[in-house]
Every structure is written in structure tokens, then in C-alpha cells.
UniProtKB/TrEMBL annotation:
Residues 13-267 form the GP-PDE domain. This is Glycerophosphodiester phosphodiesterase. The lineage of its organism: Bacteria, Bacillati, Bacillota, Bacilli, Bacillales. Pfam families: GDPD (PF03009). It comes from the Bacteria. One of its GO terms (biological process) is lipid metabolic process. InterPro entries: GP_PDE_dom, PLC-like_Pdiesterase_TIM-brl. GO terms for molecular function: phosphoric diester hydrolase activity.
Amino acid sequence: MSVLDNQGIARKVHWQAHQSTNTEMPENTMSAMHYAWELGGIPEIDIRQTADGIIIGMHDATPKRTTTASIADQDRLISECTFDQIQLWDAGINFSETFRGEKIPTLEQVLDVLSDHPEREVYLDFKQVDLVNLAAVIQKYGVERQVIFCHRDHENCKTIKRLAPEIRTMLWIPDKEIDIRFGEVLETGFESLDIIQIHLVDSELERAWRYRVQRQFLQNALERLTEAGLELEVLIFHFDESSLSELLDLGIRRFAVDEPKVFVETLENYFNK
């Protein structure tokens, strides 16, 4: 989204509406997708494949946490269920009665919207899909440039880039693995990558800087990535006006957040001080 500061200067900030811990919408639903787009962000959809080869939005390996699947189906793997079976479950009511009747969407439903809105984008967080099938579905809708493929395994990012070169790729790295993992991909010259996402978890220590990953590491990573033509994204599980301001002051312009509306309001405050 672009935000105007108090001098009328546009500041482009990209942000992902993280799904599995989203506090504002039922995760991996079409309602969540539209909510993020309408706020000016980029929704994420976690992707899994059904027994009959349909790619759907689902974070967990089973439907127990997020749907009304029967006791008999609660612990069944999504990969063992057909799409018709999955459509019997409600994917919204566990979050709120407001979303009763919400169904688990197919990836094709999401991509169909993208094909009609070239200004929109989507993150695809790989959980369990056949990558050849995934690339074919994306290419069917002609939306490769609107898709950001995400995973923690560099090899999967390389594979999807080979299958569909115009798709952007993002490698996400948990904060406790950052020293080793960032060095490993740096040695490859960030092969087949467009974005690196670093998870920022709150420190248990009382100190001025909120996160366990240190400010200097982020600054160095941002410089390295910028030099290589890549972007740095940070997943901020928790933030306030002060901590977000510090990240923006470092020059970070790509975020993943669990509270999209709160993030947008805080962002607007920053640029209009």
C-alpha cells in the first residue's frame, strides 16, 4: 500500500496478512483474502492438496482446528480427503458466527480474482502440494507475476522458479535459525530468491530493542539483500507504534502481520507524524 506522509510524499510499504495466527478474520478463507486486498495488503493462503488433486487453502495437516469436520474426519489428513468431502465443512464459524457458511477455498478461486485484478497479489505458503501441479494452475490463470511463493526450504523455491520463472519466491527463516540459514543462502548468491523473510519474536529480556534478532543484524541483512536486488520482509508477531517505527526507520518496507487493520492504522500514524 502507499501511504502519504504529512508532506504528501508517497511511501510504499508492502504487507502480508499472515493467516495461521490472524486475529481479525477466519484464516484461509475468501473473506480473509478480500479483507487484506481491501485494506491495501497482500493476503497469504496456505496451500495443501486433496486426495483428488485439488489445491486448497488450509494451514494444518488436518481439519480439526479450523473447521466443523465431524469427529470421524477431524484427524484425517487433508491429503486423504476429497474436495467434495472438504466442502461439507464450515471454515468460518469456529472463528465467529458472523462467518457461518464460509467454505475452504480452492487456489483457483483466489487466482481467478487475481486474473481480474492485475494490481492485486497473493502469497502462497507451501504446505503440501505437487509443485508441477501448482505451477500449471498458476500459469493457467496467467498470474505468475502476482504470486509470491513462500517456503522455508530453499530447494522448493528453486524448483518453482524453474517451473515458472516469473513467480517470485520468498524464503522464510525462523529467528533461532537466522545466523546459519541466512549465511547459507548468502553463499548461493540468494539463488532463485526474490525475498527473504525473517521472523521477529519478542525477547524475554527487558531492553530497548523489542526483538530477539538484533537491530544490527537486520540492518546488515537489509544492506546485503538490497545490494543483491532482493527485498527483506519481517514477520512481526507483536508490535506497537514504537517498535514498528524502529523497523521503518531502518528502511524495512515489507512486513507480515497478524493484525492487518491495526498495522495499517499504526503505519498511517508513522507517516503522518
